[in-house]
Amino acid sequence: MYLFSYKRYGEMQKMETESSRKREECEGLEEAVKKNNQTCQTLENELQDALQEKKHLSLHLFNTSQNTVQYEQVKSEYAQLKETLGAVTQERDSALREKTQLQGKLENLEQVLKVRVWRHTVGNLTLCLLYVYC
Asked: Would you tell me the Gene Ontology cellular component terms (predicted)?
């Protein structure tokens, strides 16, 4: 019986050692799982942050693209307005020159008219004087 107990005791010792080793291994694996879960959570948080940043940058890029389109439209409109302004300025300058020329002609015509009226008046006076003296 003593032999049987000693054998059993040896087996029990072996099982306890094996159990202790398995427990330590299990605890190590639990710690690794815990660490991996933390790493996974950190990576998920970083992924969410990166997705938010991507969304923000996409919106910023869209707004920048819209601003670029608006800038190009305003730039095109500015060029057209500048061209129109140049044409209108030329028309204005031409109209001012024509006005100056017409004013000069009008002044000349007024002078001619004054001379004719004066001649006509002088002629009539001469006739009147001749009529009175004759």
From this structure: synapse
Q: Tell whether the torsion through CA atoms of 37, 40, 46 and 50 is positive or negative.
A: negative
Q: Residue 127: how many CB atoms within 10 A of its CB?
A: 10
Which tens digit of pLDDT belongs to each residue from 57-83?
999 999 999 999 999 999 999 999 999
Look-up: residue for tokens 């028309």? 91
Cβ neighbours of 69 (radius 10 Å): 10
Q: Decide: helix, strand or coil at residue 65.
A: helix
Tracing tokens 């031409």 back to the chain, one arrives at 94
Number of residues that this document lists for the chain: 134
Report field, pTM of the whole predicted structure over 0.70: no
